[in-house]
């Protein structure tokens, strides 16, 4: 797998050995990043392929105020949700700071929440692009002109 996964597994194994715990590694969400130009990253729930009824949303950095401020407008965030529960299932990112944003996306996926709320993100921030992609998948993103992506 990845170094971050191996590090987590090693920490849990050490704690179990020293403290006599019986904690288990779940690896329900594993973030991945490619340190290229532009950067890219992804994270999805481990049972993502079991979902049949999903919707996709996409939010381009050209529509992000923070990306505009930083002059880093190339890239996007894509989100997959389960249509029935509106639960976020996966995020794909391309562009500046994707390696950092995927940590936020992973926490959203690992938290097992069924809805991402606007009050969790400040404006302007690149992380609110995660919310905007989620809202686009729901068909209610007010940050994009209708029919434009």
Report the uncertain regions.
none
Number of beta strands: 5
Into which percent range does the helicity of residues fall?
Answer: 25-40%
Number of domains: 2
Give the class from helix and strand content and strand pairing. alpha+beta
Say which CATH homologous superfamily of the largest domain is assigned: FAD/NAD-linked reductase, C-terminal dimerisation domain
- Radius of gyration from the alpha-carbon trace, in angstroms: 17 Å
Walkthrough of the structure:
There is one protein chain. This protein is α+β, with helices and mostly antiparallel strands. The chain has 2 domains: 1-28; 31-138, Enolase-like, domain 1, CATH 3.30.390.30. 32% of the residues lie in helices and 21% in strands. The protein is built from 4 helices and 5 strands, in the order αβββαββαα. It has helices at residues 3-19, 65-70, 98-110, 128-138; strands at 32-34, 40-44, 54-60, 75-82, 87-95. The protein has a 5-stranded antiparallel sheet with strand order 1-2-5-4-3. β1 (32-34) and β2 (40-44) form a beta hairpin.
